[in-house]
Amino acid sequence: MIDQLPTPRAANVHPLTADERALDQQRLSRGVATLLDGRFSIRTQRLFVLGGDGDWIAVQHGARDHVETRMGGVWLDAPTANEDVTAMVWRTGQPPSGYLALAWLQPADNADPEDRSQVFGYFELEKRVGAPEDKDNPKAGMFGGAPRR
User: Fold this and answer.
1) Cross-strand pairs, 120
2) What is the per-residue pLDDT across 83-92, written as a single tens digit (0 to 9) for each?
3) What is the pLDDT of residues 96-126, one digit of tens each?
4) Which of 73, 81, 110, 125 keeps 20 to 30 A from 88, CA to CA?
5) How many Å apart are CA 139 and CA 64, to the nearest integer?
């Protein structure tokens, strides 16, 4: 399912190899697992870096549009931020897992202030047995407007 998500079209985005920014990749994956607090496990992930001059809003809008419009995803009222990570989580109902997240790493306290690049990724999630039922996000949507369905 995660392969259905295109590489973001925003300028200055490139996929990360396993050895590029390895500490940031580990921090992002651990942060997502912590953020989801045992409700989900990560099945697979695709990680990217957005250069400092890249358009982060375009990345978010593109992912949201693709998941909600093309995959029928519903944005969930799931935990969305901690000190390391911010995320959006969707229920898609598509096998095998039915859940996706877009998550991005917050800059570390010791980050180089000149490095404005951002590590982010798509995560395919599997709901853990016994996890609470999902709730659609009751807010008016991350970018305003009516509640998303």
Assistant:
1) 48, 104
2) 788 899 998 8
3) 778 999 999 876 666 676 777 889 999 999 9
4) 110
5) 15
